[in-house]
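debug: dumping io for the single-chain case to check the tokenizer round-trip. Nothing else runs in this session.
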Amino acid sequence: MKFISLFSKTPNHKRFSYRPRYWDQAAEERKEREERIRRELEREQGLSPEGTPDYRARIAGSFQSARKRSNKSSGELNAVLLRSGVLLFLVLFLMAFLTWGVDSFYALLIFVPLYFYFKFKK
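debug: decoded output
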């Protein structure tokens, strides 16, 4: 038994204050657009030097536009279809083997050359 803990202060749990953030994407895009238009107007009026390129805005804009353009690539979709086809073939072959036994291997020996013939027919 701890006699010291009876007379000392027990530790409390640590507390923290969490203030959730709010991000408005439309407002941020609007501010960026206004800044870009303001810079273009200043450049046209001659208030800012003509030869000063703004690399940061172009880089940030290119990342945003690339994200909007990107979609699932056809290679990824083809890989999913190929995996599904192989899995379906294995399940069907297992069912055939359990139903007909060794005769399903002979059917496999007929099917595989036909598959390769039609695949590489071009």
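debug: round-trip ok. The radius of gyration is 34 Å.
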